[in-house]
Amino acid sequence: MVAQGTGAGINVPDQPQWEQKRALYGQSMHHIDFSAQLPRSERPSVTCVLPAYNEAGSLRHLIPELTEYLKKFSDQIELLVVDDGSRDDTLAVVSAMLDHYPVTLLQLSRNFGKEAALSAGLDHADGDVVLLMDSDGQHPFEVVDQFFHHWHEGWDMVFGVHENRSDESRAKRYLTKLFYSLLSRSAEIEMQPDAGDFRLLDRRVVLALRRLPERSRMMKGLYSWVGFSSKAVPFQPIGRITGSSHFGLSKLSALALTGFTSFSNAPLRMWMLIGAATSVLSVLYALIIVIRTLIFGSDIPGWPSIAAGIAFLGGMQLFSVGILGEYIARIFSEVKARPLYLVSNEISFRKQRRPEQQPAGEEANDA
């Protein structure tokens, strides 16, 4: 339930209102009627999910400003901060704001990564509309106006797209463009290049995302996979409030690998074709050797070329085995079926949550 403390000056919705929504959306997560859509209120309840890793300095400024700004759109606001194993003062900063702002802190038991933190936020979000933003303050508030405008027009998902990446290195821009180009050509879905996690989701999109059980996640791909009507809004990120980015090249590379293994079989098919082509060429080369031996009556010298060929083919085999291993590792992760995240603590400006289906993650106390 999205209830609000008196310090924030926000109304508390009646319990029957939530019961009506539960009846409309369905009692079971496996039998949700996505064609059943609530009338879009002029002032819907809003949950803003803020995944955070060592962002205490930014949250100290972001929470008051964002709370005040969202009052333009709703009387029922919740800022859901997902602490992804932070080692700074995130807990203390958010706890100090509970009596003054509509904040809930979902503290994960360790650092599970941004994709898991976003999933935890979606699992615990109760609003008619869910807004996803970064905790570093780089997402401009003004774009949120366009998000709500398009949502009232009937779009189920509205997302921000970077207008340009001039603030990034040339290598990062090139690799990002190459990644989206390759994935769009080979994947079963079409992803918008330069789209991020800055987006607004209608509640039925959130319920659809909750039904996806995979542990290896690339949220940008899952947003596209669930479908629904989507609208892109160009924007330019602003500077961070404090600190520097925690999402380095290694994490971006791992996320790209997850994207390929989760949404495309192209690497496996590519190496199957390479193997078939190599076999055909090997047979043709063997026939050439046999024919020349029969004609000239002697073997063809060339041990260095043979050794080089063997080394080349051995390297190709090891590389292809590595690709196969990545897919097997994903399968192994899914088969183990461990929770996507564990919640060690939840503190909130409100005392009780809206009763709803069990989230994909598990509470640490129940694990």
Automatic annotation (TrEMBL):
Record's keyword terms, sorted: Membrane, Transferase, Transmembrane, Transmembrane helix
Matching Gene3D superfamilies: Spore Coat Polysaccharide Biosynthesis Protein SpsA, Chain A
Organism (species): Marinobacterium lutimaris
KW Glycosyltransferase (keyword) present: no
GO cellular component: plasma membrane
Glycosyltransferase 2-like domain span: 48-206
Family annotation (InterPro entries): Glyco_trans_2-like, Glycosyltransferase_2, Nucleotide-diphossugar_trans
Name this protein carries in UniProt: Glycosyltransferase involved in cell wall bisynthesis
